[in-house]
Amino acid sequence: MSGDADDVRRFWERLGLPGIIDVHTHFMPERVLRKVWAYFDSAGPLTGMEWPIEYRHDEDERLALLRSFGVLRFTSMLYPHKAGMAAWLNGWAADFARRVPDCLHTATFFPEEGVADYVREAVEAGARVFKSHLQVGAYDANDPLLEPVWGLLAEAGVPVVMHCGSGPAPGKHTGPEPVGRLLARHPRLPLIVAHMGMPEYAEFLALAETYPQVRLDTTMVFTDFTEDFTPFPPAERGRLAALGDRILLGTDFPNIPYPYVHQLHALERLELGDDWLRAVCHGNASALFDVG
């Protein structure tokens, strides 16, 4: 793994950065993560393809790897697939953030009774970012139970990373239309669209152009793996450049089927310039999360 670290560090050292910030990494209770890995191993219906896990290590080794890469801040993206899980996951994530200070305190939610209460508790406890997974959770972002949650997060200015695109497989409530309805009611919601909205790239770029608080993360996009089944349209690269202050590095570590550095090289080969790379890999997230 030392070769991996050397390759990543060469990337950001060439740009003159102090390191990189990754807004889309997964840490969760071990038994939950093992079930996630088992799902990927089985090529379940939400993936539908072979998906080897590159960094299938225990928690301490995964943390050591990110630090050896020079990742200054990262997240513990976790999410419930049914009611009754989110508050428990938030308790685990709060403890994880306490013992891992370079992790941005992450929380989650599900449309259920009491959701506004435990989201407010998480915000008051210092949550810096939330995760919403419309595909896995199979819920509508416009569920009335979530209405107070969106208002609370917009008022508090706490970003939510949302898997809302219809890739790698569509869900009942994925796609730009329901997210557009949400943003029409909550235009100040600091939303980070995971995976650049794959495969509805153009539509989610349009939402970012309409709503100044909408951002997109790069997770798995532009890589050889994703380009094989959901290529990013070359005609949209100019919009990537224009939105360069609102695109954030995300990787999906550790659940990726290629080395970590490949995501960085995939961004580099877009040929949008070093200033764009510096903003995406460090500056934009540093400003959003007030990282010194």
TrEMBL record:
Q: Which InterPro entries match?
A: ACMSD (IPR032465), Amidohydro-rel (IPR006680), Metal_Hydrolase (IPR032466)
Q: Which keywords does UniProt give here?
A: Lyase
Residue ranges constituting the Amidohydrolase-related domain according to the UniProt record:
21-290
What the entry lists under PANTHER family is as follows:
2-AMINO-3-CARBOXYLMUCONATE-6-SEMIALDEHYDE DECARBOXYLASE, ISO-OROTATE DECARBOXYLASE (EUROFUNG)
Its recorded name reads Amidohydrolase
Q: Which organism is it from?
A: Streptomyces gelaticus
